[in-house]
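Researcher: Batch entry, complex prediction.
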Amino acid sequence: MKPAGVVGLGAVGSRVARQLTASGSHLVVFDPDPAALAGLGSSPNLVSLTDGNVRDEVADVVVVATPTPQAPVAIALLRRGLHVITTTDDPDDVHELLGHDSEVSRLGRCLVVGAAASPGMTGLMVSELRHRFDDIDEIHVAFHGTGGPACARQHHRALGGEAIGWHDGEWIERPGGSGRELFWFPEPIGGKDCYRAELADPIVLHRAFPSVKRISARVSATRRDRLTARLPMMSPPHPEGGLGGLRVEVRGSLGGARVTHVAGIAERTAVIAGALAAAVADQLQGGVTSGNIPTGVVVVGDGQLDELALMTAVIQRGITVFEYIGAAG
Amino acid sequence: MAALSVAGLIAGAIRLRGRGGVPPERGGWRELSRPRS
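Model: Structure tokens for the complex:
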């Protein structure tokens, strides 16, 4: 079996690489910055390259963890014959990637869109909770924290952009920074005020769960974040954000009664994204070996991946997933 | 100019203020229980 590949070794890409080498996978990593490659250390399973000209003789499956937009890199890699996993959280980038469905199917390759924390892990959490209902009709996602600097810049833009949501069969747009809701994340994060923002989650979740009537996504923000959202970032973002959090609320029916289930995670965002992208890469590598790999565009939650096994793999990689018991927090 | 400044200040105040939410009074987080695979 050929090694897996990782393109881009920022906060997320380096986590994906560490996760994959820790589980014994052979890996080829690509980053134009020699310092980023050196930061990974050395391992007999690891080959480092500064040339990003990845070809299908080098790897079968590659994780793209570059700053957004990832679509140009991802499409180029698909055309070279690789299966590609993207970690983008940019709505325009997600739209662009989803639009290549017919081409990816024609190539007989697999393109996983948004295998990160939000989107990505949120879809996996919905998929996990989905089995507790007869039918689900609402998904509400909240996100706290950022991964690397590119993620921080994306979230800054998101609060100043137009937030989209799926509402009773149509897309709605609301100003970013509006619609305050207090959401409770797992400890030690606790309660955070969250606001609408220009996030990719509703697009990806609607693709994964097309029958759900209402989908919304919010991000935590302070008053300063909201005040400065439409201005350039005042200070450069940190190399890696602090503790992040995900909260996924799913509403639906069970036995004729209304039911709500809430799941959450408190962990560094890049660690969540790294664990999920690595687990997806492992599963696709297994699919290449067995000849059982989905073709076309895939999003986490749409049932084309073995999501039960994916959640097990993510938990085994050290991510603790919680559920809220007693009341819809 | 003054009128625009005052309008901006009022709009900013409306945008930033709020009553805040109510924390949950019961319940709590526990590790996710999963179906047996």
